[in-house]
Amino acid sequence: MSATSKPIRVLVVDDSALIRKLLTEILSQAPDIEVVAAAADPFDARTKIKQHEPDVLTLDVEMPKMDGITFLRNLMRLRPMPVVMVSSLTEEGADVTLEALEVGAVDFVTKPKVDVSHALQDYADVLIDKVRTAARVRLQARSATPAPAPQRLASAGSGRFRTTDRVIVLGASTGGTEALREVLVALPPDAPGILITQHIPAGFSRAFAERMDRNTALSVKEAEDGDIVMPGHAYVAPGSDYHLRLARDGARYICRLDQSGPVNRHRPSVDVLFNSAAEQAGANVVAALLTGMGDDGARGLRALRDAGAHTIAQNENTSLVWGMPGEAVKLDAAVQVLPLGGIAASLIRDHRNAAASGQ
Prior knowledge:
Blueprint: E1 8-13, H1 17-28, E2 33-39, H2 42-52, E3 56-60, H3 68-78, E4 83-87, H4 91-103, E5 107-110, H5 120-136, E6 167-172, H6 176-186, E7 193-198, H7 205-215, E8 219-222, E9 233-236, E10 243-249, E11 252-258, H8 270-280, E12 285-289, H9 298-306, E13 310-314, H10 324-330, E14 336-338, H11 343-356
Parallel strand pairs: 1-2, 1-3, 3-4, 4-5, 6-7, 6-12, 7-9, 8-9, 12-13, 13-14
Antiparallel strand pairs: 10-11
Helix pairs in contact: 3-4, 8-9, 9-10
Domain CheB-type methylesterase: 161-348
GO molecular function: phosphorelay response regulator activity; protein-glutamate methylesterase activity; protein-glutamine glutaminase activity
EC number: 3.1.1.61, 3.5.1.44
C-alpha cells in the first residue's frame, strides 16, 4: 500500500466470538486492510456500519436475531456495499450462500477450520484476495421489487438441434453464479449441450447445479466422468477437485474429469475446458467468458477463436469483476464483447445460423 492510499475498511459480522477473532487476525495481516470493527449480530452490525462507514462487510450466513439473507436484502436496498459471505460447508449453507449471491453478495468463503492450523495460511490468502476484489466492486441500490426474469428464448423448432455436433462452453469466476443463471435461464430447452466451469469450492458446485436445474428449462447436473453431452443438458465442473474437459467417444461428445494440477491457480480451470473444446470441437463451439477475477480462460478463449469457434466476452459495464473477460479482450480472443443480457441470444443465434447453412 502506498503512503497516500487508504486502507480497505472492513466490518466483520459473525455470531461466533472465535470466528470474529480469527477473521480479524487474518485480515489484519494485510497492510492494505483495516478491520474497523466486529459485530455479533445484524442489529449490532447496523449500528457499526453507521459509525465506521466500512468499505467491505464479511457476513455470516447463519445469524441470530435476524438471518443473514434478510439483513443482506435490507442492506442492498438501503445502503449497498460489497459483502463477502462466510458460509458453512453444509448442504443448507450452500443453498443459503447461493441465495445470498442472488440477493447481491459479491462473493463467499467457507468458514475457516480453526483446528487445522497448516491450512490457515491458504485460507488467509483466499480471504484477503476476495476482500480486495470486493472493495473494487461498485454496487447499485436494489429495489424491493424483484427484477423481471430474463426472457427465455423460443425453442428452435423440432429437430433443429438433433445432434451434439455443436456445443456451448461457459466459464466464470467472481460474480459468475448469477451471470450464469441469467444466461441459462434465457436458453431454450433444446439448446446444444453446455459445459460450465465456474470457480467454486467443493460442496457448492452440486448445490449450484441443482439450483440451476430447478430454475431453468435445461437439465443441469454436476458433471460426472463419462457423461454423454446431450442437447438441452448442462454439465457443471465439480468445485475445487476436478478439471472438466470436453472429449470425443466416437461420434459423441463426453465429459472427462481429471485431478491434474491446478492451472492459473484453479481446479477446475476455465482454460482447461476451453482448450479441450478447441482441440476436440473447434469451429463447432460457441464459448462465452463471463465475469471473474484474474485471467483464467482468456488464453483458452483465444485458442477457441483460432480454432474457428465463435467466442464471446462479457462487457465491462455488466461484469461484477472485469478480470477474465477483460484479459480476453486484450488478447483479441473475443469475436463479440456483449452485455450479459445479450449473451444467451448470441449463443443460440450462432447455432441457428450454422444449422441453416448446413454446417
